[in-house]
Write a structure and sequence with these properties.
single chain; 293 residues; alpha+beta; Ribosomal Protein S5, domain 2; Alpha-Beta Plaits; 7-stranded mixed β-sheet; 4-stranded antiparallel β-sheet; globular; binds adenosine-5'-triphosphate
Length: 293
């Protein structure tokens, strides 16, 4: 058996451009891997993916992690059975890139298990999902194009985030459609003085999808205002939402911030930025992470 952790991502900033000729939105975003992870295990056994308790995560060919395994097998023309177990901890449809990071880790696991070079993972990533190339690279990166162009940046660490998932799931496609319907609004950037020092050179940072997420689910704005009042600082949204986050000096401060949030959130967690999108675990090693939040 081999195992890996797959880290969620936060969009520290996300700029969206109008639809291109092929019907895709071009983006330019500052992406950051964070210490909120799923765990995947690969072994011989019954072919398929298992592991979570029903709910919103799809089965089989609709699961991004399984699609990653199939893509590697197809390329290698391998018929070897693969048993994949997914321990799902990252909230689904939250703007945290859970499906993409599972796919990135599953690509790496499948390459190793089936004896392919890990460079095959990078070749296959963009076809599985637009955030998969970033999740393979991980850390701090500037992501452009449809998400397939990933320029690694020097890691910006030394701060913490309080991350809160309001009680709604947002479909990325619905939010982009709303953004088009609104005429492609631009974000109001966070004041540079409120960013951690290491991020100030990346200002202005804002998320163009925020007005669209609010159009689809107005409670995202209610949660944002509530958190800003409680935390006494600006709060931003990641990806297509609804997940919101605020910057704190260290994990202790971020933990105190999430301890006081209103009831009803889908999840809340204090996290720190990390330098990798995924990591292989030694045989049987526990990833040292706590249970689902
Ligand atoms: P992003 O930020 O990349 O736009 P997200 O974090 O908002 O994505 P995901 O958690 O990746 O959203 O889930 C989006 C949809 O993908 C889910 O509604 C689910 O149906 C589907 N999905 C497929 N595979 C997975 C997976 N391994 N984990 C979570 N969702 C998955």
């Amino acid at each position: 058996m081999i195992a890996a952790t797959a880290n969620a991502k936060i969009n520290l900033g996300l700029h969206v451009a109008r639809l291109d000729r092929d019907g895709f939105h071009q983006v330019a975003g500052l992406f950051q891997s964070i210490g909120w992870s799923d765990r995947l295990e690969m072994a011989d056994g019954a072919d398929g993916i298992t592991g979570w308790d029903g709910g919103e995560v799809p089965d089989g060919a609709d699961n991004t992690a399984w699609r990653a395994v199939e893509a590697v097998r197809r390329r290698l023309e391998s018929r070897r059975s693969v048993s994949l177990r997914l321990d799902k901890r990252i909230p689904v449809a939250a703007g945290l890139g859970g499906g993409s990071t599972d796919a990135a880790a599953a690509l790496q696991l499948a390459c190793r298990w089936l004896g392919a070079p890990s460079s095959l993972a990078a070749e296959l990533a963009a076809d599985i999902g637009s955030d998969v190339p970033f999740c393979l690279e991980g850390g701090t990166a500037l992501v452009t194009g449809r998400g397939e162009q990933v320029a690694a940046l020097p890691a910006v660490l030394g701060y913490a985030l309080a991350v809160v998932v309001p009680p709604v799931e947002l479909s990325t496609a619905d939010v982009y459609r709303a953004w088009d319907d609104l005429g492609g609004p631009a974000a109001t950037p966070l004041p540079a003085g409120n960013l951690p020092p290491g991020l100030r050179s990346h200002a202005p940072l804002g998320n163009d999808l925020y007005p669209a997420a609010v159009a689809v689910a107005p409670l995202v704005a209610e949660w944002r205002h509530e958190l800003e009042a409680r935390w006494g600082r600006p709060v931003a949204m990641t990806g297509s939402g609804p997940t919101l986050f605020g910057f704190f000096v260290d994990r202790d401060e971020a933990e105190a911030a999430v301890a006081g949030i209103p009831t009803g959130a889908r999840a809340a967690k204090a996290v720190v930025p990390v330098t990798n999108g995924w990591s292989m675990l030694a045989n049987g090693e526990n990833d040292g992470l706590d249970s689902p939040t």
